[in-house]
Amino acid sequence: MASSFVIKISMEIQIDWVSDMRNYKLTIAYDGSRYQGWQRQATTDNTIQYIIEWSLGKIVGYRVQVDGSGRTDSGVHARGQVASVKLSGLYDPEELKESLNRYLPEDIRILKVELVKNNFHARKSAKGKKYEYYIDCREKPDVFSRRYCYHYPEKLDIEAMRDATKYLIGVKNFVSFTDNKDTNDTVRKIYNIKIVRSGEKVRITYYGSGFLYHMVRILTGTLLEVGTGRRDASKLPVVIAAEDRSLAGFLAPARGLFLRKVYY
């Protein structure tokens, strides 16, 4: 009888704890240069996810789990990564943001905290993403942006690259454009690809329902090969149909890539 009473009390405490949880949406910017990507790993604490979880835990007094909208690779940056976390009790979003930023290193910054519905999930609720890739085509890399651009000192045919995007836009199986050999879900939709030149610098912006491991960086390498005349854009449908990674372009370096925005 006593044990039943203890179990009942324990269940009531657990139910109260769950019912008291609030869901928070975090918008995050970070310089990924010195981190091993977004995702928490068993072999290192040097990831964005772990550092934010540790910092939040110091504030609330217990271990938390932060769910990101998706992974970014080692060295990739973000201007608008989104994460969600459930916390016990009600916190003022602005005060929580300021407290969290005091714990975080200067290359990780919480831009916004919002109280959202409990069914919101940063990854599962996402409808699309916007990525930007920056390229520096001058002879010598720019002193101030060299850590955030891929130095590619080649003359690019921007119109040829823009023309090539028509073969990549739409719903397609992008297995030729990923380095993850274990995934079976390789169909994605690219809504648009914009290529803008500003002086000796080029920005490629990708809008899509989601992106596979290394997909944006391989697409970028492929478009750069088109821009230098090393690849015939009209053959891109063959590359897609072949479902063969070796036929697509090179993997552009991580430092030029930014997760710009997540759409909900």
UniProtKB/TrEMBL annotation:
Catalytic activity: uridine(38/39/40) in tRNA = pseudouridine(38/39/40) in tRNA
Enzyme class: isomerase
NCBIfam families: hisT_truA
InterPro entries with a match to the protein in the record: PsdUridine_synth_cat_dom_sf, PsdUridine_synth_TruA, PsdUridine_synth_TruA_a/b_dom, PsdUridine_synth_TruA_C, TruA/RsuA/RluB/E/F_N
Protein name: tRNA pseudouridine synthase A
SUPFAM superfamilies, per database record: Pseudouridine synthase (SSF55120)
Active site residues of this protein: D73 (nucleophile)
Function according to Swiss-Prot or TrEMBL: Formation of pseudouridine at positions 38, 39 and 40 in the anticodon stem and loop of transfer RNAs.
Highest taxon listed in the record's lineage: Bacteria
Ranges of residues in domain Pseudouridine synthase I TruA alpha/beta: 28-122, 164-264
Subunit record text: Homodimer.
Family of this protein: Belongs to the tRNA pseudouridine synthase TruA family.
CDD domains in alphabetical order: PseudoU_synth_EcTruA
